[in-house]
Amino acid sequence: MTWVDQPMTASFDVTATRLLDRFADRLEAALADVAEVDYEGGILNVALDGGGTYVINKHAPTQQVWVSSPQSGAWHFALDAKSGAWRDTRQGQDLVALLTRELAAATGIDVVLG
User: Residue 31 sits in which domain range?
Assistant: First the structure.
């Protein structure tokens, strides 16, 4: 896999912001009855009514999107330049797939993030 490995660029900022904007819009629409979604200052918080909070934010120094999951812990995702997917830097898991799977398990709702 080809990971982005360079200093912060405007391109990373725009790409990561668009990703978080899309996630916020879709999560607010899909989870309104089962979670509180708050997106402010580039940090997306998804507080599940059943307990647990996801925190998703961009980390400029590493050009990664970081996720704190109440189900699976901390994750760091980098943009795979070849596929355009955000992949976990340790195991290569896809960000959208991980969140979709975990949120469905926690809420019973299939959220379309991609």
Answer: 10-106
